[in-house]
Structures are given as structure tokens and as C-alpha cells.
Design a protein that fits this description.
- The structure is a single chain.
- The chain has about 170 residues and is of the alpha+beta class.
- It contains 3 helices and 3 strands, in the order E-H-E-E-H-H.
- It has 2 domains: about 60 residues, Defensin A-like, CATH 3.30.30; about 100 residues, no CATH class.
- Helices cover about 70% and strands about 15% of the residues.
- The chain has a 3-stranded antiparallel sheet, with helices on one face.
- Helix 2 packs antiparallel against helix 3.
- The longest helix is centred in the last third of the chain and has 55 residues.
- It starts with 9 loop residues before the first strand and ends with a helix.
Length: about 170
């Protein structure tokens, strides 16, 4: 006959998170009583699949689940802000490059219409805009990162407070 004190029923959780935030998610979920079971890097190398388990009979489970949902929402906000740091400069750089392409298109049509001087005059800004798109990207990326750094840090502080509350409930 087995002792019922030895029996542990587990519940499981699977999350797919960006590789850059793997440690934050892993550390955060440990505060909710979860133990990392398995880690698999996704094919795109940008995300990782994390599998956790925890005892079903954990104390304060309802409150821990509420705090965990709050943590998930806070981390989703941090991930979104991090994505915006790359997406917004990319959109601006692509727009600058497309504007350069418009100038080059006008240059080609001017050349085909035998307006050689106009073709050269319009081609110069086209080439400059093509070359400038990378520098615009780098400049705007640094600028937006500086603006968003405070917001990201504030949200990470909020997640730390949530994890601290969960830690006191689960331990």
C-alpha cells in the first residue's frame, strides 16, 4: 500500500516566448510555483517553447492564477514595446528607400523621354535616399530606444512587483 503523502498531481503549462525574454519568463513563472520541465528553440530561432509543471495542490492557487494572468499581460506589453523598437525604424527606413525608388523611377522615365539632364538631376536624390535609408534606420532606432527604455523599465518593475507578490503567496 502506498502512502498518499507521496502522491503529487501536476498541472502543466506551455508558453512560447521570444528568446530575448526567455530568462525573464522562466524566472517569473518560478515565482508562481512553476518548475521548468523542458525548453525547445523554435525553428525560426527567435522564439523558444517552454514547458512548466507545478503541484496541483499549491496553496493560494486562485490568487496565484490571477497574479500570473497579470504577469502575462505585463510581459506581453514589454515584448510589444521591444518589437516596436525595431518595427517603427524599419517602417521609416523602408519609406525612405521607397521614396528613393520613386525618384529613380522618375529618372528612368525622364531618360526614356530624352530628358537626360532631368534624369541625372532626379537620380541623385534617388541614390542618396537609397543610401540614407540605413542611416535613418540606425538613427531612429537609437532615438526610439532611448525614448522607450524608461517605459520598458517601468513595466519590468511592475512585473517584478507582481512576481514578488506571487513569491510570498507560493512560498
Amino acid at each position: 500500500m502506498t502512502n498518499n503523502q507521496d502522491f503529487i498531481a501536476y498541472e502543466y503549462l506551455q508558453q512560447t516566448v521570444p528568446v530575448a525574454f526567455e530568462a525573464a519568463f522562466t524566472d517569473g513563472y518560478e515565482n508562481f510555483g512553476w518548475q521548468l520541465e523542458k525548453r525547445n528553440v523554435a525553428l525560426n530561432q527567435k522564439s523558444v517553447h517552454l514547458q512548466f509543471k507545478r503541484d496541483r495542490r499549491i496553496d493560494n492557487k486562485v490568487e496565484l492564477n490571477r497574479l500570473q494572468r497579470q504577469f502575462d499581460e505585463q510581459m506581453a506589453g514589454v515584448v510589444q514595446l521591444n518589437r516596436q523598437q525595431a518595427a517603427i525604424p524599419t517602417i521609416i527606413a523602408i519609406t525612405v528607400g521607397l521614396l528613393g525608388t520613386v525618384f529613380m523611377g522618375v529618372s528612368v522615365f525622364a531618360y526614356l523621354a530624352a530628358f537626360l539632364v532631368l534624369s541625372i538631376v532626379v537620380a541623385v536624390p534617388g541614390f542618396l535616399l537609397w543610401g540614407a535609408s540605413y542611416f535613418v534606420y540606425r538613427w531612429y532606432q537609437r532615438r526610439i530606444a532611448a525614448k522607450m527604455r524608461a517605459s520598458i523599465e517601468q513595466r519590468l518593475d511592475q512585473t517584478a512587483a507582481t512576481c514578488q507578490s506571487a513569491f510570498t503567496l507560493s512560498h
